[in-house]
Amino acid sequence: MLKLRVMGSPFEVHTFIHHVQSDPQYKVEYTTEIYERMNQENQAIAFANLEFNPPRQEELVVKIVTIDNQECEFCMTDGQVLKMGDNITLISGKVYDVMC
């Protein structure tokens, strides 16, 4: 079990905790957020107990097609695909054979 303490602006703290909760690798068991005023600024402190459950190592195949229709293929383990916004996708993983 991991214990997490985060301090900062209320918006940043809330956004970060929400991001951690949405990650399937972490199970957030308990969260407390405390709001206070320090040094003329609003501050938030969040406490959470996390359980880290990494997913099984499944193969992820990423195919990229270039402008001239050439294909490039990457085989990865521990692959994750995260949609960051319009036209932006983050793909991460471990490459075990670049010639697959």
Describe the structure.
This protein is mainly beta and 100 residues long. The protein folds into two domains: 2-52; 60-95, no CATH class. It is 13% helix and 61% strand. The protein is built from one helix and six strands, in the order βαβββββ. It has one helix at 10-22, and strands at residues 2-8, 26-38, 41-52, 60-65, 71-85, 88-95. The strands form two sheets. The protein has a three-stranded antiparallel β-sheet with strand order 1-3-2, covered by helices on one side. A three-stranded antiparallel β-sheet has the order 4-5-6, with no helix packed on it. The model has no long low-confidence stretch (mean pLDDT 83).
Radius of gyration: 19 Å
User: What share of the residues does DSSP label as strand, in percent?
Assistant: over 45%
Going by helix content, strand content and strand pairing, the class is: mainly beta
Distance between the termini: 37 Å
Summed up, the domain count is 2
Quickly count the helices: 1
Report mean pLDDT, rounded to a whole number.
83
Secondary structure elements and pairings:
Blueprint: E1 2-8, H1 10-22, E2 26-38, E3 41-52, E4 60-65, E5 71-85, E6 88-95
Antiparallel strand pairs: 1-3, 2-3, 4-5, 5-6
Quick overview:
By secondary structure, the chain is mainly beta. It has 1 helix and 6 strands; from the N terminus they run E-H-E-E-E-E-E. The protein folds into 2 domains: 2-52; 60-95, no CATH class.
